[in-house]
């Protein structure tokens, strides 16, 4: 018995298939976070309907979020000019974005978290708290367990209290049109997002 089709490209899975794919993709995504396909599969298989409905409602309650749901814009190397971004003044969102390896890490930039294990875990906890997605919380828990003792202590004593506060009070990141803020200073974008940098 398969679930109903949620969108055009959705492939409904039987509960057992969903469970097995969720476990397999989670194991792969946690051991190799660069596997975007497994991170996406983990998100698809572990996000339950109430969580997805909550995300949709939060986006619909935000004027930009509503527009993003209607337009479904994609940020990729085909839709932005990385050369132009790299020539923007230092400190702008676009300049920071041009210096990152991945094209999806706006949360890393806004939270000023490196793409090392501690930064990844910190961002996963932020996303888990703000979005309510089980895969993010799971990634934070298992990623945190893989940290060295010194980094784990920093996560528990410094980063987690800060990130819990930021995720709770910040503007909903999924309802933010990042591509329209490339020329702004990162500090101004953080103010717009209601993010206090980690001191």
From TrEMBL:
GO cellular component terms given for this protein: extrinsic component of mitochondrial inner membrane
Keyword DNA-binding: no
Reactions performed catalytically: a 4-hydroxy-3-methoxy-5-(all-trans-polyprenyl)benzoate + H(+) = a 2-methoxy-6-(all-trans-polyprenyl)phenol + CO2
Record localization: Mitochondrion inner membrane
Source organism, top-level taxon: Eukaryota
Binding residues annotated for Zn(2+), in chain numbering: 104-105, 108, 120
Function: Lyase that catalyzes the C1-decarboxylation of 4-hydroxy-3-methoxy-5-(all-trans-polyprenyl)benzoic acid into 2-methoxy-6-(all-trans-polyprenyl)phenol during ubiquinone biosynthesis.
Subunit structure: Component of a multi-subunit COQ enzyme complex.
Family: Belongs to the COQ4 family.
Identification of the protein by name: 4-hydroxy-3-methoxy-5-polyprenylbenzoate decarboxylase
Gene label: coq-4
